[in-house]
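Reviewers asked in the last cycle whether our approach scales beyond single polypeptides. To address this, we selected a multi-component target totalling 798 residues and predicted its structure end to end. The input consisted of the following lines:
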Amino acid sequence: MSVESVTWERHDRRSRLLRFAFALGGLIVVLASWQYLELDLRDFGGATAAFADLATRMFPPHLEYAPEIVAPLIETIHIAAVGTMAAFALSIPVAYLSAENLTPNRLTYALGKVIVTVSRSVHTIIWALVFVIMFGPGALAGTIAIAVRSVGFLGKLLGEELEEIDAGQQEAISSTGANRFKTLLYGVFPQIKPAVVGLTIYRWDINVRGATILGFVGAGGIGVHLYTAVDSFAWRTVAIIVLAILFVVILSEGVSAYARTKAQ
Amino acid sequence: MLETHDLRKVYPTGDEALTSISTTIEGKEFVAMIGPSGAGKSTFVRCINRLTEPTSGTVELDGTDLTALSSAELRDARRNIGMIFQEYNLVERLTVMENVLSGRLGYVSNWAAFRRKFPQEDIELAYEILELVGLGGMENKRVDELSGGQRQRVGIARAVVQNPKILLADEPTSSLDPETSHDVMELLTDIATDHDIPVLINIHEVDLAVGYADRLLGLHDGELVFDGTPEELTDDTHGVIYRGEELTTTEAKRAIPAGGRR
Amino acid sequence: MVAETEQPRSTWHRPTTFYDHRVKWGIYVALAAFLAWSLWGILAGVGLSRFTEGLGYGVTLLQTMYPPRTEAGDLVRLGDRLLESVAMAMVATAIGVTISIPVAFGAAQNLVSRPIYLLSRAIISISRAIDGLIVAIIAVMAFGFGPLAGIIAISFKTVGFFSKLLSEDVEDINMGSIESVESTGASRFQTLVYGVVPQIVPRFVGLTVYRWDINIRASAIIGIVGAGGIGQLLMTAYSRYEFDYVASILLGIILVVLLAEYVSAVVRRRVQ
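The resulting structure, written as structure tokens, was:
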């Protein structure tokens, strides 16, 4: 089948030409970018050597430092947990507004879309910059940054989930004489529950990763320590921190994957 | 007793789905509404519990005019009307028991509904009805694990557990294979007799309707063109319902006694 | 079953996905306790009043941000740096995707030996687990400030993402058509070119464009740690409290990000 379709495309000159133009255009843009950035292949050669050098400096990791990073690691996990929880609570009304079939009117729909777009197009670290000014340096600013960035993600995906619910189930429940609340509870919520649980856990997993860098702008977590260690060229300390981050992130990824299969 | 008077439905697109339907259904009558697709069968059934809002006319159930009710009153009235759907419309991710018990939602508090806590009598009734529809022992199965026939039985159980005064069924067999369709029709006739309630179903399979119903209503283009027993459904009347043929006056009089059948 | 049906039962408990109801409640309580502990951990040091106070500062901040700065010189600098970010994303995508190809084939279980598979998977895991900014901050220290560090960091992140998704496609390849090419007596390389490549090219293009879109977002912020692009300008303006300029920069970033998202969506739709 697929071999046939490929042969067919081969004979289609127009699409072939288009593809060629697309590839050539891409190549030109990349080369122009290379030129614009004044890059030199030798830089990359040097990079390999520098990385090798760095690796030797990082070895062996500074194990004695490990106890010092337990508290900031826990803070990182706290930031991710509270940020996700707050985002979850906020995303429910946002999802409701941005679901075309449920939103009260076109104005609320637009409002929902604006919230989702603004939240999603600004990176967590930029949100953190803003909230550090407002709430001072520390975990609170980081948590709010995580929450604000996650609202758009959860609101968008839950909204799409709400748009796809089966209206028949809702109708059947309301035809038994159930009120709106009970209809939501029985006719709507069971349909979106796996998505709600799955997406929230998934976002939590992403947020654990995101929370590791908040410290670069003073918004709490392990990043503060990493920043200090890198700044003072304490490479063996950097190594232990990166290893600890790897451990926490991979662990939370495992927990997230397991919990999501359970939520089906 | 269900009585519709001059029931009319015009959709916002301008399509007139029902033109002045007046009829009465009572006792433990098993009434099947037949007609080609697009005749308005489904609209008629859905207008009774106002899942589709009728444009004009009245629907009276045991003397209460449903079309005049506020939304809170309508909710209370709907508790007395069991409805069975073509696509079952079960809550796929809940268990059989939860789906059956959802027929009692109109009677429990919001808080009890939230905790999935139903009164003992309701649970006893649910078990009883599950036996009745042949799903004994299946209460803990999730609905999405069931076959089509089993799902429709759950749908029937959900309607019957309401202890309704009338049972409506919107094409209950068209998603089922022929054998299961017969089982479901049989079950519905049994329920009509055992629970002493009328059953109104709309159905496009004429042979099923003729085989099980006490009375047939024929709908063509939103108009009631036949009302009689299955025996009275001749080739001519069949033609009226399905091809919109004109009957001679005498035949027409025989087919539709003036003012509907009382 | 018959014995059960003789007596009507008056209780019913919903079966749970957990082992039993006690385990379920145990997990719920543990989760609630964990969240309470987290909340306490975040708020203990600051208190709720700091939160409400912060909202007040937010209003002041918005006032200093408005109107955004529009002086010609500042806008030129802004445009320059934005262009630098886009160029970084371009180069990093090209480099990252190129490196990804061997890694992706190495991570496809059906094509390679076990040790190569495990090595490739390890590269992917590490690349995915570590945030780009962490790589960037280390790269900056190793090679100095500027786009080079940013490109290295973004390329590194691209490899993990791209190889993982591409390897899944490689694993899904229709073996039948490979065999049909092989049966003509083609060499291993020829089999790859005629049997494997045509099957994954559309997906490959789609993924590249998708990742390019993500890389635009990344290159816009990576300068926060000095790794080049618009982020560097943002950080300078931020540390000088020039919040009206920060506003212009943020608007510029959002514009470019949305534009990239749009282009990426259009191209991906056309490819598929």
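Chain A touches chain C through 64 residues (CB under 8 Å). We regard this as preliminary and will revisit it once experimental data from Aim 1 are available.
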